[in-house]
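Exam review. A common question shows you a sequence with its structure tokens and asks you to describe the fold in words. Practice with the pair below. Do the first one on your own.
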Amino acid sequence: MKSRSRRSLAASTALALALFSSVASLAQFQPALPGYRFEFPRDFFNHPDYQTEWWYYTGNLQTAEGRKFGFELTFFRQGVSRDPAKSSPWDLRDIYFAQFAVSDLDIKQFFHTERANRAGPGIAGADATRQKVWNGNWNAGWSAQDQQHLSATANSFALDLVLQSRKSPVIHGENGVSQKAAGPGRASHYFSETRLAATGSITAAAHQYQVTGLAWMDHEFFTHQLEDHQAGWDWLSLQLDDRTELMLFHIRRKDGSIDPFSAGTFVDAQGRATHLRAQDFTLEPDASPPDASSASKAATWTSPLSGARYPIRWKIAVPSRGIDGVVTTPLPSQELASGSSHLAPSYWEGAVFLQGENVSAPLRGSGYLEMTGYDHPLASAKFWPAAR
């Protein structure tokens, strides 16, 4: 499996290298500015006026017997040209990437692969008329009653899930934008479906399992990339057992400091969202000795492929909500390693679990953690949308 994944990564990297010379000027695209008004279902789909766009599905699933899995299925669109003279289906207007991973948490196996395509005559795309986002035979499709269908198949792993939304979409940031740096347009339009009830099947090592659980969907579209002084980010989503959700991210600077534009969102049980500024929460690696119940005995994990050293145990706190806990993973090796760190950096994204307290009561939850820029600063990468 690992050799097939590396071949797939190398093929996608080769395509990106071949196409990079024609990537469009930012002037052809619209910046993400305050005042944007989200509208659904319109905003579930394509926003071609922005250069970069992604649809990010993650989730934690289990069988009736309690076997646990994590999954990631992501779709990326990167604008290349908006030349009106290019009207053929084969003219290159966008590059579409997709990545698919399954974490078998009980037997400690991580399966992943990726692909890259142009739109062509229906090879990849995001279309409101067809009510889906797709890359080859990997699909995310919408239907009535706030229901979605995810499907993806690789050589020895697969996913087929029906997702039912339990809450309305949550808008992150303020005044329609999630600001990432100082200045107009240094931002994204960003929303999530934070509690999707999942039912279906997952295949790992060629064995299929019936599963249920929770999924999370992020959709983000923008034009401006990271500033030169920003190295990467750490992003965390949590679905808590009290039916609340939490999203936190901090942006790391190259000097080791945390950017003040780091932010988050707390979603209460009724679906009401509260914006969190950097000073409202703690998200930091936990180097203290773990207790006996900790899922991860080590504080860090070093990738044998990229050489990146990732913190895999994190302390979180949101004092205004009484939340205080530690996030750990039972599977340290959940890195999606790129064939070229200068083109598409490697990053870690995997299933995690929270143990903590909320107003002196035990608090539990599951979610996903993403860490980027540990092998190479993302601001220096040539085609960095291969990571969130």
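Now try the second one, then compare your answer with the model answer below.
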Amino acid sequence: MSNYIIVGCDMSDRSMVLQLAHQENSPRKKAFSNDDSGRFRMIHYLHDQAGKAGGADIVFAYEAGPHGFGLHDVLTEHAITCHVLAPSKMPSSPKKRGNKTDEKDALDIFEALRGHLLAGNRLPSVWIPDPRTRQDREIVRARLDVGDKARRVRTQIRMLLKRAEVRKPKTLATNWTAKHLAWLRGLTGSASPLGDGSRLMLASLLRQLAWLDEETATLDAGVAALAHEERYRSKAAALQEEIGVGLVTTMVFLTEMGDLSRFSNRRQIAAYLGLAPRSDETGRRSDCKGHITRQGSARIRWALCQAAWVRVRNHPGEKAFYDQIVTRNPKKKKIALVACMRRLGIQLWHDGMETERSARTAPPSRPPRGGKRQFALPAPRRRHRRRSPEVEERRRAV
């Protein structure tokens, strides 16, 4: 029988509250500070308890949150098995939400972990991305964050002009072009129809927008460099062949999804993206579906939404699929778009998996011969085995 020291932890900025026990024994509370010295003392204490329990394995669990996966990495380095749990999948009730403490939260995590280890219950753990994937996510998320801030500044500029009842000239057909920005900068001068306060605010917003546009270009270069790295190059090229899928959408999908092989079918993809419908079925209610769950990464859903609109406008098959749903019920335009997002997310997963399979089955490339000269070797010519006259006659008869 396995021998475990089971630990459930509720972590905050300053402290870590533990509930731990050996096998079926009653749990006891222990607290440590959430810093380097506190973690060192906690690890030393847990190993000491494992030694007293006859060399028991230490299994640790805490909920995912703003602290990331740093504690997981530290515990793994010190031979402690660590699980990071999804808070949205932990059992909850109105009574628990109204009576919440660190000690009780740690006890809930402890009970979930002990049920998994000793009774085989399902543990709501999350996938742990490797450190390289976490750093790649930071680059792409920074690009999305800057783009979102730029959109907000543009909205502020439009609302400022609307409040001042200043309309752009009819000669400016498109917003945010070089001519449109020149016109906006002209409104900050002394001959502007805007008041003093509005001119000052508009000038500030234009400076912010210029900086954000420059920062967007810098981060776009970083995302492009990331897409050309070896681990993303082939998959990024395959995903961008889809109509409406650009560089940013591709890298958002690849970095947020992580290891594509951990999914086995389209239903898991839809559930992870939060594009699966909610269900409220019991008794005779066997087909009662609601709105989508919206679980998982909101960044992927935003990217899929932007790409889906482009595909509806430019992809004949996707436009026909969208129109088919809207024709049946004109009020379901949002539902039709969500269906297109789901189809696109599944298609991108298939494209990425197909690229991975092709890379695994491809024969290894031969190293270039010679010292300085490097050239592509011609593909080997396929040799056909000569058939006997009898075999050739039978083949023609078939």
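Model answer, second protein: The radius of gyration is 29 Å. The chain has 14 helices and seven strands. Full marks require stating both points clearly.
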